[in-house]
Specification:
With 100 residues, this protein is mostly helical. The chain has a domain at 22-69. 42% of the residues lie in helices and 0% in strands. It has three helices and no strands. The chain has helices spanning 22-35, 38-49, 54-69. The longest helix is centred in the middle third of the chain and has 16 residues, at 54-69. The mean pLDDT is 79.
């Protein structure tokens, strides 16, 4: 019997929690073994770390840290010493036309 749109999910259906996606795992293994072997990743990372352009060197460090340790979480609240954001609404016209 087909699943009707809007009806709840069948209990017990789908991939169980904690079981990895086999396709994703096989693609990741294929990429690491053929396209991006560990030695190549290390050599290219070292190349960019010693590159004469400081922007490329910094980007390599930034990406290495992000992938190695995770990207830092953006703070929701600004720091205490950060200036407050001021919004000037005086330029917004106050004239409204009445629609009959």
């Amino acid at each position: 019997m087909p699943h009707r749109k809007g009806s709840p999910k069948t209990p017990g259906s789908g991939r169980k929690k904690g079981i990895p996606n086999k396709v994703t795992e096989s693609i990741k293994r294929l990429m690491l073994e053929t396209i991006f072997p560990e030695a190549r990743i290390i050599s290219e990372f070292e190349f960019f770390l010693t590159h004469p352009d400081p922007h490329l060197r910094w980007k390599a460090v930034e990406l290495g840290l992000a992938y190695g340790f995770g990207k830092p979480i953006m703070p929701i609240q600004p720091a205490e010493d950060a200036p407050l954001l001021e919004v000037n609404v005086s330029a917004i016209p106050k004239v409204h036309e009445r629609v009959n």
